[in-house]
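Quick note —
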Amino acid sequence: MSIRRVHSVKDIRDAATRRRAEDEMAVVVEAQAPESLMVKDMKAGKLPDGDGFILLPREKVIRVEEELEDHGSAMVPSAVLEHFIRSASCRVITNFCICREGHECKTYPRDMGCIFLGDAAKDISEELGRQVGVEECLAYAAEARKLGLHQIVGRFHADAHWLDVAPIEKLLTICNCCTCCCGMRANKYLDPKESKRLLSPMPGLEIAVTDDCSGCGVCEEQCGFDGIHMDDGQAVINPEKCKICGACADACPSDAIQITFKKGSYVQETIKSISKRADVTSG
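Predicted structure written out below.
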């Protein structure tokens, strides 16, 4: 099947802008490969085999139940990113975020793009991104966290299409997402099972609302997944939709939302799960 590729930055930005008003998924996907089976599957509420992301929570809101076997620190999300960034044969930072560019984001920097790792990233056009070293890549990821962007790690066929690279098994994506513009909003296009596969919480996390909740509703305003709502003056977590990203806990003025890591080797479990989706090493 013939698939049209979009090569120029202008074409990519124009395509994203044309689609932003009606179809967030198509911002990334349909504009790049309108006739592909991938697009048809997504419109039918399905994901390509092997696709999916794990959302890493905001570090400052995590409470550690016991000393973690892996790192002995609450900084576990950045430990996951550091593993892949250091292990990668190639690291590329894109010059812009295709989602924020398409939605003309007013809240977060449009030039804070994704990080792509692995052999396939070597073929990303210099017009779209630049290859960087380990330390620069780690600093860039840290800056994205500092800005309050959600970091999700995994594999997505649409990225291989708009970047025009292959194979997908050698391309790992680290997205620096905002809930106002980015691809996380694609959850609404998928059935519940596929939605969980597209974006799942980091293993080992638990979230709870304590009796300190004042019923202010700030948490509900901050959630981008419809994962928490007010019920009779109390915040209630929806376990089917909550991704345990930490935005609600970060915003809560009463410190009433607690995110806890249970005892266990969850850093290694997360790394193992992500490694099944893409191999970032050389060869």
